[in-house]
Amino acid sequence: MEADARIVGIGFLFHRVTNPFVRLILQSPMHPLASGKLILVTYVGRRSGLKHTLPVMYANWEQELIVMVGYHGRKKWWLNLRNEPAPVEIRYRGNPLKASAVAVEGDAEVIAPRLAEYCRKFQSSARKRGMVPGSPIDLEALKAKCKDEVMVIIRLPTQPGPA
Length: 163
Fold this sequence. Notes:
Elements: H1 2-26, E1 38-44, E2 51-57, E3 59-61, E4 64-68, E5 86-92, E6 95-105, H2 108-121, H3 123-128, H4 139-145, E7 150-155
Antiparallel strand pairs: 1-2, 1-5, 3-4, 4-7, 5-6, 6-7
Helix pairs in contact: 2-4
């Protein structure tokens, strides 16, 4: 219970203090400080119809950006991207782009190879999943761990243009 309260407190801190600061950096000429690991995702709320923008960590996978949704049971933003691709706007390496995104839940065949790339980029994510950073990744073993994972796949436009 105490740990849950701490996570909620940390979530509040990120949502109200850190995220606005990171958004400012990613939208400024100072974006190279963070844009190698973070993007801004703007989506439309399915009930409210309002636009929401948040910074998320990403890894590249072919013509996609991969976002792992940590503590997905406590977060609601990804629910707006369930079931079918939805239009999103992203700020990727300083450039505004229109893209589509879809949330994938528990599909090991889709998630595992992308998660492997994500874990190569973010060693803390590898450790969280019991892997040794820098060592070869056993894709079959990783598939077994994907049943409780939620991933957002952002498909980049084939010809980048402004959002």
